[in-house]
């Protein structure tokens, strides 16, 4: 079954306590941040701390995907960050401010060289591209399709809204970008992450936004505080009746496969692959966090 | 790697440590830790192993530990040494 990516928790790359303990919150993915959360004078220190933290087995033991947000390759820090991430054995790298597929091609070129030098299989490091500008949104489909390493595409709201000469409001200001990024992800067959909700004290506002992006079809959301993980996972958890029906669908599908049936039906209704795949998705969410409370 | 100037890395926050390095003719490691009694020896081992990997044979290394994990100890020692040696391009295979 495909990896669940409901929550991507950002952690400042220079903070030793947070990097070494965040597994206790059980996010689906953690994002060790070397970009905006790290001051210029601590870039070297954070890079080494992230490299060493990547050696900790605990995240893998809990099935938590580890991603590193590097600085842009246009900066003096980006390539050094990439070296630290790959030598450290990261699962995926998040490239900020991705405007064109050419930036992904350049990233891949460096990845291949570093993987060879570090003795990692070529292609084993995956990519998450963050879209943070109008041009990035317009190019989202070609960015999402630019590499077999791509596992997800994310929208980052702050820079995008500055670029659009507006600010956070009722959500309408992000509507086009959210839909464009999500469509790009679906065209490419990868996951889509929504932007962070920065007011951690406003749980009602957070949940309203989660319901909205879940309704659009987003796989999950970038988070800046561990307090947002449980409410988010709960919002993505299925209801008991959805679980019961999904189990019946999967059982009927497995039974039909055993009997070699071309057409499978349940309670007199035909069930096809999209229904079966959706049922499996629901069961995997149920197995990860139970039924919705 | 030779330490040619005073340098510092890390913080005094819980689960972190601060490492100060200075040029000196011999290698001297001084460790203060709030878990010295239980883990002092282990911290010293991690510091020595890290210095060995970086081929540091001399210098004064002062550690103020606040209960950091091994990964943080390694990272802060590496950062302080690289800063003290004025090395900006790291050969990552050294750290393996």
TrEMBL record, chain A:
UniProt keyword annotation of Signal present: yes
Signal peptide range in chain numbering: 1-16
Reaction(s) catalysed by this chain's protein: (3S)-citryl-CoA = oxaloacetate + acetyl-CoA; citrate = oxaloacetate + acetate
Location of the protein in the cell: Cytoplasm
Assembly and binders: Oligomer with a subunit composition of (alpha,beta,gamma)6.
Assigned protein family: Belongs to the HpcH/HpaI aldolase family. Citrate lyase beta subunit subfamily.
Name by which UniProt lists this protein: Citrate lyase subunit beta
Automatic annotation (TrEMBL), chain B:
Name this protein carries in UniProt: Citrate lyase acyl carrier protein
Annotated localization: Cytoplasm
Family indicated by similarity: Belongs to the CitD family.
Assembly: Oligomer with a subunit composition of (alpha,beta,gamma)6.
One Pfam family it belongs to: ACP
Assigned keywords, A-Z: Cytoplasm, Lyase, Phosphoprotein
Source organism per UniProt: Entomomonas moraniae
Domain of life: Bacteria
Gene Ontology annotations for the cellular component aspect, listed alphabetically: cytoplasm
A GO molecular function held by the record: lyase activity
HAMAP family: CitD
Modified-residue entries (O-(phosphoribosyl dephospho-coenzyme A)serine), positions: 14
């Amino acid at each position: 079954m495909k990896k669940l990516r409901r929550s991507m928790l950002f952690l400042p790359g220079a903070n030793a306590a947070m990097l070494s303990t965040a597994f206790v919150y059980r996010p689906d993915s953690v994002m060790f941040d070397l970009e905006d959360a790290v001051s210029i004078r601590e870039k070297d220190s954070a890079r080494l701390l992230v490299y060493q933290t990547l050696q900790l087995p605990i995240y893998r033991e809990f099935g938590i995907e580890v991603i590193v947000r590097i600085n842009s390759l246009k900066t003096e820090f980006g390539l050094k960050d990439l070296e630290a991430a790959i030598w450290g054995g990261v699962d995926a790298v998040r490239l900020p401010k991705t405007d064109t597929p050419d930036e992904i091609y350049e990233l891949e070129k460096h990845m291949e060289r570093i993987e060879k030098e570090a003795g990692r299989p070529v292609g084993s490091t995956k990519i998450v591209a963050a879209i943070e500008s109008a041009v990035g949104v317009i190019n989202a489909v070609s960015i999402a399709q630019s590499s077999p390493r791509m596992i997800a595409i994310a929208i980052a709201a702050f820079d995008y809204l500055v670029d659009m000469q507006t600010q956070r409001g009722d959500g309408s200001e992000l509507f086009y970008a959210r839909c464009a990024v999500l469509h790009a992800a679906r065209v490419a067959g990868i996951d889509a992450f929504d932007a962070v909700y920065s007011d951690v004290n406003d749980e009602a506002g957070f949940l309203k936004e989660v319901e909205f992006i879940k309704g659009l079809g987003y796989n999950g959301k970038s988070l800046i505080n561990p307090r947002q993980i449980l409410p988010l996972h709960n919002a993505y958890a299925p209801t008991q009746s959805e679980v019961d029906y999904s189990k019946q669908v999967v059982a009927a599908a497995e039974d039909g496969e055993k009997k070699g049936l071309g057409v499978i039906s349940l309670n007199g209704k035909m069930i096809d692959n999209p229904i079966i795949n959706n049922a499996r998705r629901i069961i995997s969410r149920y197995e990860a966090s139970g039924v919705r409370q | 790697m030779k330490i040619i100037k005073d340098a510092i890395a890390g913080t005094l926050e819980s689960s972190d440590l601060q490492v100060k390095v200075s040029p000196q003719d011999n290698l001297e490691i001084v460790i203060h830790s709030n878990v010295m009694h239980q883990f002092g020896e282990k911290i010293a081992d991690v510091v020595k192993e890290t210095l060995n990997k970086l081929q540091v044979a001399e210098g004064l290394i002062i550690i103020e530990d606040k209960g950091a994990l091994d990964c943080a100890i390694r990272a802060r020692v590496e950062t302080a040494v690289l800063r003290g040696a004025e090395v900006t391009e790291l050969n990552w295979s050294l750290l393996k």
